[in-house]
Fold:
Amino acid sequence: MRIHWKRRLALGVATAWALIAAQPGWAAGHDDLVTLFRDFRAIVPPKIVDGVPDYSEPAIAQRRAALVPLYDRLRAMDDSTWPIADRVDYMLVLAEMRGMEFEARVVQPWKRDPAFYSTTDLGFGPKMSTAMALPTLPLAADKVAPFAAQLRAVPAVLAQAKLNLTDARGDLARLAIVQKKIELNVYRHMAEDAKKANPPLVKPALAAAAATADFIAWLEQRLPFMPAHGGIGKDDYNWYLHNVMLFPYDWDGMKAIAEREYQRSMSFLKIEEHRNRNAAPMPAPIASIGQFMAARGAADTEMLAWLRDQGIMTVPDWLKHDPAEGPYILPGDLDPDRADQAYPPPKPNFFQQAENRDPRPLRAHNLPGHQFDQMQAARDTRPIRGSKRLYFIDGARAEGWAFYMEELILQAGLLDDRPRAREIDYILEAKRAARVLPELMLQANRWTYAEALASLTSRAPYWMQPDDSIARFDIELYLRQPGYGIGYQMGKVELEKLLGEVGAAEGRDFDLKRFHDRFRAAGMIPISLIRWEMTGKDDEIATMR
Structure:
C-alpha cells in the first residue's frame, strides 16, 4: 500500500518527536505545550485568497494533514508529573485538536450548512472566517476601499459555496434562505444609502446583492432534493460532548436530567403563583425606551451592590452597568425591511416580555453572567487558558454560569420582596429546561426543525408564540452548533454538582464567595477541568484523555 507523501512526512515528524521524548533527560514542560499550542492555532484559520476563505475539499484535507504531527507531538508529552493547572492546559490543547478534527470529519459545515457562508456577521453559530461587520455609512475616506474589497469578495464566496455544498441538508438550507434574505435586504439598502454617503460602495454592494439573490434561488431550487435532517447523529454527538467539550453527560443522561429539571421548574412556578395569589398582578411591559433604560440601570446597580454586600462573590470595580447596552434585539432582527425595531416592538419576543416586566432575572444572566465572563476573559493573559476557546469548548461553562446566576438571585434573596420577579425567574428556568430536548432530538435526527420549534414554544410557560423570534433563533442555533442548547441547563447542573461536592467536603467551613472566586479564577474552560483543579479529583477527566 502506498502512503501519501504528506502522511509520510507527518509520520516522520511524529517519529522524531517520539524519539526525542524517549531520550534520557528530556522531558516536555509547560513551555513546550505553549509552543505547540501556538503552532496549532497557526493552522486553524483557512487560507484566504482575495478575501475568499478556502473551504474546498483539498484545503480541508491539507489542514487535517497538518494537524497529524501536532497531535503526535502532544501525545509524546508526558504530563503525569505536571501541576494540575498545567495538566488542565494540556487537556485544553487536546480538546481543541480533537475539535478541529471532528469539525473536518463530522460537522463539515462547509459541505452541509449553507448558512455557514454568511458574508455578514449577522446571527450566531458557525460561519466562515471572513464574515464582515456591517458599518454605518458614511465611512471615513480611508475605510471605503477596504470595505469595498470585502463587498467585492461576496460573489466569489457564494460561487465557492455552490461547489462545496455537496451534502447540504434541508433544515439547514431553509435557515440559510431566511438568513440570506436578510443579507439581501442589507446589501440593497446599503447600495441605496451609499449613493450619497459613499458612491464607490454602490457597485460592489449591488453585486453582493445580486450574488446573494442568485444563491437564494440556487438553494430554493435544490431544497426539495436535500435530506431533511441536519443533526450529526447520536453517536457522534456523544463523542463530541465527551472528547471536545469534556462534558461528563451523554444524550440519554441529559434527557432524563433535563426532563426532571423542567418538571421541577414548572412545579415551583405553580407553587410560587399560589404563594403570590393575593399580591399585585404581574407588571405590564415597560412602554418607552427611557423607562426601560432607567429600569435596567437601576437593576444592574442594585444587583452588583447586593452581590458585593452579601459576600456572594468578588465584584471588581470594572464590572458595572453599561448605559450603551441596548434592548434585547436579535441579530436576525436587524433587517432594514422590518418595521418592528423601534421600542417597544409590536411583537416583543420572549426575553423582551420578561425583561420589560422586571429586568432582574435576565440581568443576572447577562451582567454578572456573560458580561463578567467577557470582561474577565479580556484580562486573562495566560497563553493557553486566556485564549478564546475554539469549537465551543467553553459553551457549557459560559451558559451554565449565566443561568446559575439567574437562580442564585432567587435562592439567595434578591427577589424576596418582588414576588412577580420570582415568577419570571421560574418562567425563564422552565424555558431553559425546555431547550434541552429539542437539541437532543435535532442532533439525533429524530426531529426536524419544525418539530423542535413546536416542542419549545408549547412547553415554555408563557409569552412564547409559535413564531417567536427567540424560539426560532434558539432552534436554529441548537441545530447548527451542537452543545449550545444543552449548555444552559446542563452547565448549571454541572456547576451545582461541583458546589455540592465542595460544600460537602468543607462542611461548616464552606464559604460561597471563596467558591465563586475560585471557580471564576479558573477561566473560560470546561467545568470538568475546573472541578479537577478545585477538588483534585480526576475521575471524570481520566475517561476523557
Summary: Residues 235-331+355-543 form one domain. Confidence is low (pLDDT under 50) at residues 1-26.
